[in-house]
Amino acid sequence: MGISDKIWDALTNVIKMNDKIVSLSKTVENQQAKIENLTERVIRLETTIELLMRASEAKRLPKSPS
User: Fold this and answer.
1) Does any domain span residue 36?
2) Model pLDDT for residues 29-51, shown as the tens digit of each residue
């Protein structure tokens, strides 16, 4: 194998690695978007549960005598 073949193989490997990195970057971006969406949904669920629990507690509180 000559020097030019080794250089060509090295260049080919770098190009393949670059393609894999680009693909991985897109995958990470998609996963991050999904995580952010799930985080927003959990926050909404927590808020809803907290409001329902407070409403339930308010119904159970004894009324003060008038």
Assistant:
1) yes
2) 999 999 999 999 999 999 999 99
Q: Is residue 19 part of a domain?
A: no
User: Nearest to residue 41, comparing CAs of 33, 57, 29?
Assistant: 33
In a domain? residue 60: no
- Report residue 39: phi and psi, to 5°: -60, -45
Q: Tokens 């339930």 — which residue? A: 56
Residue-range definition of the domain harbouring residue 35: 26-53
Q: 66 in helix, strand or coil?
A: coil
pTM, 2 dp: 0.63
